[in-house]
């Protein structure tokens, strides 16, 4: 880009363009292009770096990374076992969801064995102390630094040499070399890349807090996700007590794990039995309610699938889903109408995974079909019955993975019967009702 030329960068995907446009040609978002001024170069140019040499992979020194526990088992599960030395982790979520509370609890736990530098650009030390008193997170090794200048932060890290660094939040930091306001696309990208460089050079793990917009994307560019090692999303309703922590990217572990917390006055409390939590408010004997067992990473999770079918007066019936895959629901509706004969084309259909959890695996096809048919025929399915199975376009029920884990979790919570694909040879105390087709499953449980 020529000197002095303005660049317009998309705040959703990070793509740059020479002129402003109403819609980003790259990702399709509207009104997401922001003006980015050119970076001011320092008059003292650094000496050119020595070119790196290519070496054989067998000659590279290697030792297994020692992970450090955060003190919260649910967070350790999502991270893949704990914090890796020299890693950069991004924790994002809507404002007020509990990110700062979680970070203060983690900082208190880590400060028992090392110095933790908590850098806050949003709150004063007095405000943080007030929250720390409520959470019981006051220790000598927890150092507070109210600073937004990246150069000053780097100096303090060099002086203190902490064991861990927490940045709350990335939207408040700025580099003097970048002619843009804090929180802009340019500042967020440059500050994040600089912090990652510090983590790799010093071996100090850095945790970065980033807010997300109302559309659910990280404020600033999504290029943050490519810069850091791990990206965690904090999900949940601010007016409800349960929070889900989900890994979107993890270079050191699985991205299928989730952590579940409950927000209380004393902070975030780990939920030891999430299946029981998600089923605690389940209505008994209500049509359109079926329990299924999903697998999130290595954890089986019992979830209630709800469906509501109502006659429509519109030319086009409404289809609304929450927490499940909308495309899978459309396929299931077509199968039910074609193979079973349910007249769903003249009805509005709503499908929901209760409790705010998101489940997108094919194993929940059968419970979705059962819930829709149950509500359509106004016939409830026994509350002690759960169902798992994938549905094909011909109406057949296909086998799924991890069925033994799923049935053991259902057995622990007192379920008596399980509807499974035919040929599920599993040793369990549950009564297995095997079905080869959706029609077979519906005729057995919805007479």
From TrEMBL:
Record's keyword terms, sorted: ATP-binding, DNA damage, DNA repair, DNA-binding, Hydrolase, Metal-binding, Nucleotide-binding, Stress response, Zinc, Zinc-finger
Annotated spans, Lon-protease-like: 348-447
GO biological process entries: recombinational repair
Any Pfam family hit: ChlI
SMART domains named in the record: AAA
Motif (RadA KNRFG motif): 249-253
Positions annotated to bind ATP: 93-100
Molecular function GO terms recorded: ATP binding; ATP-dependent DNA damage sensor activity; damaged DNA binding; hydrolase activity; zinc ion binding
GO cellular component: cytosol
Domain RecA family profile: 64-212
Swiss-Prot/TrEMBL domain comment: The middle region has homology to RecA with ATPase motifs including the RadA KNRFG motif, while the C-terminus is homologous to Lon protease.
Role this protein plays: Plays a role in repairing double-strand DNA breaks, probably involving stabilizing or processing branched DNA or blocked replication forks. DNA-dependent ATPase involved in processing of recombination intermediates, plays a role in repairing DNA breaks. Stimulates the branch migration of RecA-mediated strand transfer reactions, allowing the 3' invading strand to extend heteroduplex DNA faster. Binds ssDNA in the presence of ADP but not other nucleotides, has ATPase activity that is stimulated by ssDNA and various branched DNA structures, but inhibited by SSB. Does not have RecA's homology-searching function.
Family: Belongs to the RecA family. RadA subfamily.
Stated name of the protein: DNA repair protein RadA
């Amino acid at each position: 880009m020529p000197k002095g030329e303005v660049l317009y960068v998309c705040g959703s995907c990070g793509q740059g363009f020479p002129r402003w446009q109403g819609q980003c040609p790259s990702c399709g978002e509207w009104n997401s292009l922001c003006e980015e001024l050119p970076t001011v170069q320092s008059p003292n140019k650094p000496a050119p770096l020595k070119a790196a040499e290519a070496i054989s992979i067998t000659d590279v020194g290697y030792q297994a990374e020692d992970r450090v526990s955060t003190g919260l088992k649910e967070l350790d599960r999502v991270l893949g076992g704990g914090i890796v030395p020299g890693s950069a982790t991004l924790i994002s979520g809507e404002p007020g969801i509990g990110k700062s509370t979680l970070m203060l609890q983690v900082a208190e736990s880590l400060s028992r064995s090392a110095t933790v530098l908590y850098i806050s650009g949003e709150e004063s030390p007095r405000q943080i102390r007030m929250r720390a008193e409520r959470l019981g997170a006051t220790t000598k090794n927890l150092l507070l630094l109210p600073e937004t200048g990246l150069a000053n932060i780097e100096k303090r890290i060099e002086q203190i040499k902490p064991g861990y660094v927490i940045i709350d939040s990335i939207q408040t930091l700025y580099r003097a070399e970048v002619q843009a306001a804090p929180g802009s696309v340019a500042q967020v990208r440059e500050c994040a890349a600089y912090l990652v460089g510090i983590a790799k050079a010093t071996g100090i793990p850095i945790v970065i807090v980033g807010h997300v917009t109302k559309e659910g994307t990280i404020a600033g560019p999504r290029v943050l996700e490519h810069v850091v090692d791990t990206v965690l999303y904090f999900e949940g309703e601010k007016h409800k007590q349960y929070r889900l922590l989900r890994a979107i990217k993890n270079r050191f572990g699985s991205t299928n794990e989730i952590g579940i917390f409950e927000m209380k006055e004393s902070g975030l409390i780990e939920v030891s039995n999430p299946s029981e939590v998600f089923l605690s408010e389940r209505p008994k004997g209500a049509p359109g309610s079926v329990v299924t067992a999903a697998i999130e990473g290595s954890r089986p999770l019992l979830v209630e699938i709800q469906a509501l079918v109502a006659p429509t007066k519109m030319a086009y019936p409404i289809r609304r889903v929450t927490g499940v895959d909308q495309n899978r629901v459309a396929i299931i509706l077509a199968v039910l109408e074609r193979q079973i004969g349910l007249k769903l084309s003249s009805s509005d259909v709503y499908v929901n995974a209760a409790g705010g959890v998101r489940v997108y695996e094919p194993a929940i096809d059968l419970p979705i079909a059962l819930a829709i048919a149950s509500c359509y025929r106004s016939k409830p399915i026994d509350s002690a019955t759960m169902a798992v199975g994938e549905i094909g376009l011909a109406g057949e029920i296909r086998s799924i993975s991890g069925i033994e884990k799923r049935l053991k979790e259902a057995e622990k919570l007192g379920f008596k019967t399980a509807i499974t694909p035919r040929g599920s040879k599993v040793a369990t105390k549950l009564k297995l009702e095997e079905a080869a087709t959706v029609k077979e499953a519906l005729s057995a449980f919805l007479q």
